[in-house]
Automatic annotation (TrEMBL):
Family (UniProt): Belongs to the HisA/HisF family.
SUPFAM superfamilies (UniProt xref): Class I glutamine amidotransferase-like, Ribulose-phoshate binding barrel
Protein name: Imidazole glycerol phosphate synthase subunit HisH
Keyword Amino-acid biosynthesis part of the UniProt annotation: yes
Organism: Thermosulfurimonas marina
Annotated catalysed reactions: L-glutamine + H2O = L-glutamate + NH4(+); 5-[(5-phospho-1-deoxy-D-ribulos-1-ylimino)methylamino]-1-(5-phospho-beta-D-ribosyl)imidazole-4-carboxamide + L-glutamine = D-erythro-1-(imidazol-4-yl)glycerol 3-phosphate + 5-amino-1-(5-phospho-beta-D-ribosyl)imidazole-4-carboxamide + L-glutamate + H(+)
GO cellular component: cytoplasm
Chief place where the protein resides: cytoplasm
NCBIfam families attached to this UniProt entry: hisF, IMP_synth_hisH
């Protein structure tokens, strides 16, 4: 089945292509106006900024062909910005006209909640549609956006979603459908919607169980620490307090692509790969890691994050690469987000001395790919003091006293996989990174990593209270109760674990069922 894809060149459309291909579609790219006019089915996955997308369409001479196609009665699927540009204009780009196919405007969220709205949320269908065939109504879909459409004609709304406000999360008008969420990143439910669009036949239905109000789910993330073993093969490994060797050999927990696929099938809401020796090697020479990402993104349809070695780099021949170039290679290989570790510490040290440079990896990558694509991975260690006056860093009074009975501690950042401690604390680091454009914090703990003792709740609470972007709690999960604790007692939006999943001590479905029973909103597959 032939699908024409409109890629205006701003972002990663690989996941949309992978999802369509996995459903048997043959994807052709729009190269000029005639490809739009001759398309049988057109898919428009918009990424980036409303103003840039409209400018790119104008410069490529695609505006009129697109309007003509939308009037032609042939199937159209818009995704995210591919929905928003159908309207007259957006608060994101005042004065820039949209396609104006439907009357109405695009508004920014003005809610007392973190913006962008990132994560898995539900749908409240407003009318029957072929797209809902095979759905129960309880599924959740992956959203990442700061703006939503307000159609002037209420009958356009296909679904509503709640996030501080009820907003239109999908529209349908004859053969034209457009979705605010990303079906290509929404697991089996998203693939079902894409399949229903591609089939384009059958009865319009309403799912049997429609929620009264939809809720954002807390996310469960599976993390794969990847490095070469002593034979040079890339393997998933797992450390204890960051030491990944056992009897002198790198612990081998399995193949990265196979494990990622297993976690996807078990219901992981995201998969994170950390190339843990990325600080030593140059990641663009690390073709196997790019290949792992490519192969994973062909079969795993939830968001993928990659970390390790995202920084400016000069290779042996003296050629320099920017962190943005490194990140772009990862996005092209199928990543949705990159995670920055050591470089974030150096950036914050520099910021505290001189203020923002405008050229750091955090600033450059978030300007091009958006805030939501930049995660900061922090590797802190507890540093105990007898009295808060001993340090200029923000201290907490801890319920877990230090080795000499110290009642206070601060959380010291490290670089190079925990090998080197720096004079920066995790709270300051998180705050500055948010200001520079980071979209999420992945908060590890060297003290808890691999111990199964539970998350460092004091650390997670301190950092998540200091920022308004989502915090992913990491390190130490040992049983279902630990996941509940972190959601009940801190403001973490997501919980990440590695060892217990690799060793099958606890599996993802069991974690989610436990959380659901305790009243925590989760996505069940
Ligand atoms: O500094 O930008 O090159 O990034 C390197 C990345 O690799 C950082 O994100 C850093 O956290 C990670 N990393 C470096 N060395 C190690 C190591 O283990 N020796 N792994 C490492 C960090 C921590 C988590 C782990 C959780 C959960 N691993 O990723 O998965 O602690 O584990 P658990 O559930 O088993 O307790 P750069």
């Amino acid at each position: 089945m032939r699908v024409t894809l409109l890629d205006y060149g701003a972002g990663n459309v690989r996941s949309v292509v992978n999802a369509l291909t996995s459903l048997g579609a043959k994807v052709h790219f729009v190269e000029g106006p005639e490809d739009i006019l001759s398309a049988e089915r057109l898919v428009f996955p918009g990424v980036g900024h409303f103003g840039s997308i409209m400018q790119a369409l104008r410069e490529k001479g695609l505006l009129e062909p697109l309007r003509e196609y939308l009037r032609s009665g042939r199937p159209f699927l818009g995704i995210c910005l591919g929905l928003q540009v159908l309207f007259e204009g957006s608060e994101e780009a005042p004065g820039v006209a949209g396609l104006g196919v439907f009357p109405g405007f695009v508004r920014r969220f003005r809610v007392n909640l973190p913006v962008p709205h990132i994560g898995w949320n539900g749908l409240r269908p407003q009318k029957p549609s072929r797209l809902f065939q095979g759905l129960s109504g309880e599924e959740k879909f992956y959203f990442v956006h700061s703006y939503y459409v307000e159609p002037a004609d209420p009958s356009l709304a296909l679904t509503f979603t709640d996030y501080g406000v009820s907003f239109v999360s999908a529209i349908e008008a004859g053969p034209v459908v457009a979705l605010q969420f990303h079906p290509e990143k929404s697991g089996p439910a998203g693939l079902k919607i894409l399949e229903n669009f591609l089939r384009g036949e059958g009865e319009a239905v309403k799912p049997p169980r429609v929620p009264q109000r939809t809720r954002l789910a807390k996310r469960i993330i599976a993390c794969l620490d990847v490095r070469s073993d002593d034979q040079g093969r890339l393997v998933v490994t797992k450390g204890l307090q960051y030491d990944v060797r056992e009897a002198g050999r790198v612990r081998d927990m399995g193949d990265p692509v196979e494990l990622a696929q297993r976690y996807y099938e078990e219901g992981a809401d995201e998969i994170t790969f950390l190339n843990i020796t990325g600080f030593r090697h140059f990641p663009l020479q690390d073709q196997p890691m790019l290949e792992v990402l490519r192969r994973t993104s062909e079969r795993v349809f939830v968001p993928l994050t990659i970390g390790g070695g995202i920084r400016d780099f000069t290779d042996r021949d003296g050629r320099s690469y920017t962190a943005l170039e490194v990140a772009s290679a990862y996005f092209r290989a199928g990543a949705d987000k990159v995670s920055i570790g050591s470089d974030a510490v150096y950036i914050v040290e520099d910021y505290l001395r001189r203020g923002p440079s405008g050229r750091s990896s955090i600033e450059t990558i978030s300007r091009v790919y958006g805030r939501q694509a930049v995660v900061i991975s922090i590797d802190p260690k507890r540093h105990y003091v007898k009295d808060p006056s001993e340090t200029p860093h923000p201290v907490i009074e801890t319920a877990l006293p230090g080795p000499n009975g110290e009642r206070y501690c601060w959380f010291q950042c490290t670089v190079k996989g925990g090998r080197e401690a720096r004079d920066v604390d995790a709270i300051t680091l998180a705050r500055v990174c948010e200001e520079l454009g980071a979209g999420e914090i992945l908060l590890n703990s060297i003290d808890r990593d691999g111990t199964n003792l539970g998350y460092d709740l004091e650390l997670i609470q301190a950092v998540s209270e200091a920022v308004s972007i989502p915090v992913i709690a990491s390190s130490g999960a040992g049983c279902e109760e630990h996941f509940y604790e972190v959601f009940a007692r801190t403001r973490a939006e997501a919980a990440l674990a590695a060892g217990i999943f690799h060793r099958r001590q606890v599996e993802i479905p069991a974690v989610k069922r436990y959380l659901r029973e305790k009243g925590i909103e989760v996505r069940l597959v």
